[in-house]
Amino acid sequence: MSLTSDQRESYERDGYLVVPELFDSASVDRWRERLIEIVSGRAERSERMLVMKDVMVAKGAVAPKNELEAVAKVQDYEGDPVLDTYAHDDRILEVIQGLLGDEVMSIHTMLINKPPNVDGRHPLHQDLLYFPFRPAEKIGASWTALEPVTRENGCLVVVPGSHRGKLQPHGSPDWEYVNVAYLGAVEVADAIEQRVHLEMNTGDTVFFHPLLLHGSGRNRTKAFRRAISAHYANVAVTWEWAGGDYLKRPYRIVTGPRKGEIWNGQINTETPINPLDYLADSVDEMLRVGDANRRRATTP
Ligand SMILES: O=C(O)CCC(=O)C(=O)O
Q1: Is 38 in a helix, a strand, or coil?
Q2: Number of neighbouring beta carbons within 10 Å of residue 279
Q3: pTM for the full model?
Q4: According to DSSP H, which parts of 40-109 are helical?
Q5: 71 CA to centre of ligand 1 in angstroms
Q6: What is the pLDDT of residues 231-285, one digit of tens each?
Q7: With contact defined as beta carbons under 8 Å apart, do 137 and 236 qualify?
Q8: Which atom of ligand 1 lies closest to the CA of 154?
């Protein structure tokens, strides 16, 4: 699907674009099924895949009835033959190319599972916090609903136009249960008043800018709220994080003449960005809690 000029303008103005019915239910069914297979151990996990348990499960605050009720996210599904068909799907890539340019690489992939009975909220945050690449406008996300998402089951919430601001300080929200690395922008009192709830049907897809403030609410239903997502960057981005651990993971080019190759990264650390400068909380504290939860999350 090539973008219309109205769609481009709306993305540039608001920082996001919803494309209804980008996928039919058959495509979406296989990704949802694959999540179940992976979580229940019926499918092998790809090399870097991380299945994260929900914090309430990890802390014993709720007793899940099955494996799927225990999981908050599957990070880095790259290499999974079924889930990869999402990140490499032409319907996604054509829109991404329209927004970011012709040659793009995949920089992150995940499934988000919001089971019933857990808090599961995502505080308002900006994804750029997690990415070493700049400039921000050459990065973008796709997020596809794997079932109808509503205010009641914790749909995405966005703050239109917030992508025109800067990367903000983030910290752990003051909630009783917060999943590891679900950081929130600290100063959001005004922004939260302008939030818009994106209620979507199965297969509807939202594309968004990495500076867009977004999050999601609690699942107050007795059913699951699941989504599949991928992040992309134009190959012309440069790696700008401080520290020496450059290119510690392969970023695969997914469009254009170098499709299939691993990005061979331009590094620009003249004015290095230290992501820790954007963390409002004690890093030691966050890492300590994070490690403990990760250990629990990966223990079957
Ligand atoms: O799907 C959701 O609930 C929010 C996902 C999200 O914003 C994230 O994981 O960064």
Answers
A1: helix
A2: 17
A3: 0.93
A4: 55-58, 84-87, 90-100
A5: 14
A6: 999 999 999 998 767 677 899 999 999 999 999 988 888 899 998 899 886 555 5
A7: no
A8: 3
* CB of 216 shorter than 6 A to ligand 1: yes
pLDDT tens-digit profile of 7-23? 999 999 999 999 999 99
Cβ of 122 less than 6 Å from ligand 1 = yes
Identity of the amino acid at 44: E
Distance 198 CA to ligand 1 centre (A): 12
Q: To the nearest whole number, what is the mean pLDDT of the chain?
A: 91
How distant, in Å, are the alpha carbons of 20, 122, 230, 277, 281 from that of 273?
36, 25, 23, 8, 18
Residue nearest to atom 2 of ligand 1 (CA): 216
Q: How far is CA 90 from its chain centroid?
A: 19
Q: Is residue 109 within 8 Å of 48, Cβ to Cβ? A: no
Bridge partner residues of 171 (DSSP) = 184
Mutate to test the pocket of ligand 1, among 112, 142, 151, 170 (most ligand atoms within 8 A of CB): 112
Ligand 1 touching residue 227 (CB < 6 A): yes
Distances in whole angstroms, Cα of residue 100 to Cα of each of 96, 105, 132, 140, 197: 6, 10, 17, 7, 25
Cβ contact 206:143 at 8 Å: yes
pLDDT at 292 over 60: no
Place of tokens 């800067």: 166
- Strand pairing class (266-267; 238-239): parallel
Domains in the chain: ranges and CATH = 5-298 (2.60.120.620)
**How many angstroms separate the alpha carbon of residue 270 from the centre of ligand 1?**
32
Ligand 1 midpoint to CA 249 (Å): 22
What are the tens digits of pLDDT across the range 206-235?
A: 999 999 999 999 999 999 999 999 999 999
